[in-house]
Amino acid sequence: MPSGFRLDRGESGVRTNAAEAKNDPRLPTLFRRWERLTGYEVEYDRGKAMIQSRADLFRSSAGGRQLFDWYDREVKKAGLKLRRAAAPIGAQGWIYRAEFPTAATIVVWRYGRVFAGVVGEGITAERTLVLAHAQQRRIVAALR
Q: Which among 144, 95, 84 is positioned nearest to 120, based on CA atoms?
């Protein structure tokens, strides 16, 4: 973690299917179809800067792929002014960049049974991608 960032315990922890479903009424049905098992999210803050890291685990790689595709469609539908490019991470990845109202980078990818992402606000896109690669190394080790 970059210097000065502190764990936000209130925004970090296990993300069960039931808890995540409170954010979107479509999710219970989608989670059952995708066979999502569980997830985890952690957030670190430093002033106005923020780093969020997330991983969702599925019964099979099909679930991770389906969430990856769904996420991309949702970003497009939201009409956000994000520039998207392929990210060299996992089996397939995207990097989304926003300049306004705040500089933000979102890296999402899939690898095996996992969908993962890192969001960086107030840090460079390059730093966000470095953090995503660090998370990917942990995912690879955990799935062995």
A: 95
